[in-house]
Amino acid sequence: MNLLSKKIGYEYDNRGDIASKGIVDSYLLDQLNGLHYYCKPFPKSLAWEWVVDHALPLLDQSCLSVENQMRTFVEHIAIQISSVAKCHHLKSVFDRRWCL
Predict the structure, then answer these.
(1) pLDDT confidence of residue 98
(2) Comparing 92 with 47, which gets the higher pLDDT?
(3) Which domain holds residue 10?
(4) Which of 32, 61, 70, 76 has the largest CB neighbor count within 10 A?
(5) Distant-in-sequence, close-in-space partners of 85: CB < 8 Å, separation ≥ 6
(6) Mean per-residue pLDDT, 57-81
(7) Domain count, the chain
(8) Is residue 91 classed as helix, strand or coil in its secondary structure?
(9) Higher model confidence: residue 83 or residue 97?
(10) Contact 58, 37 (CB under 8 A)
């Protein structure tokens, strides 16, 4: 997300202000959600290098505004987290040990 923010002169998306101004692009969202990685069996880990090699090129090729790219990527992330939580019958994605 910071790489996208930097394209329009910001270090990061403070409070999600940039992404909140965008709209979800269904075509890009389908491309992101259709990446083969998500069909692979567990255990797996999503490294930054994978994002750079596979997700960011889709964002760059979309020709959407940064706001729309960010909003769509946020939606994609939420969908993937929700999918894993449902698959594992999790009631929460938060580990209560992390809460202060």
Answers:
(1) 47
(2) 47
(3) 2-98
(4) 70
(5) 92, 93
(6) 94
(7) 1
(8) coil
(9) 83
(10) no
Rg of the chain in Å (alpha carbons): 15
Nearest Cα to 79, choosing from 40, 30, 36?
30
Q: Note the Cα 17 to chain centre separation in Å.
A: 16
Whole-number Å distance between alpha carbons of 61 and 39: 23
| Alpha-carbon torsion (99, 33, 29, 12), positive or negative | positive
Distance (Å, rounded) from C-alpha 92 to C-alpha 85?
Answer: 7
Amino acid identity at 3: L
Q: How high is the pLDDT of residue 81?
A: 82
Averaged confidence pLDDT in the chain: 85
Contact call for residues 13 and 6 (beta carbons, < 8 A) = no
Q: What is the pTM of this model?
A: 0.81
